[in-house]
Amino acid sequence: GTCTVQDCEAHIGQLELTLDAKVYIIKDRSELESFSPPATIVNKYYDAYSIDFEDLKSKLQILYEEYDALLASLQESSPNKFEDTNNILETSRKTLFRYHEKIFYGLNYLGPIITAEVLYNLIIE
What we know:
Elements: H1 5-19, H2 29-35, H3 54-77, H4 85-109, H5 112-124
């Protein structure tokens, strides 16, 4: 619906009370900019990450392969004592792969600090 002038004034008055502020009407932006200058845009460019994580990545790859082999051997060797054992092991292998890929992506493109924060948040979830 449409609002009358009185409705608009009442809404503005309520807004002023809620925000503990005063609403002013201006004719053009230049009047506003004299009190509050516009934001200036600043572009900052950073160098690419220059640290080589090949040693760390090779160690992580070895750990991934060992743990994946362990899960695979559990899947093949143990008779399924429970109905969902195979599903749990398969889900564990998929989760391991996803985490492994996320860690490698983070190290390649985001750096170690952001990768550590992402992993911390993944673990908390």
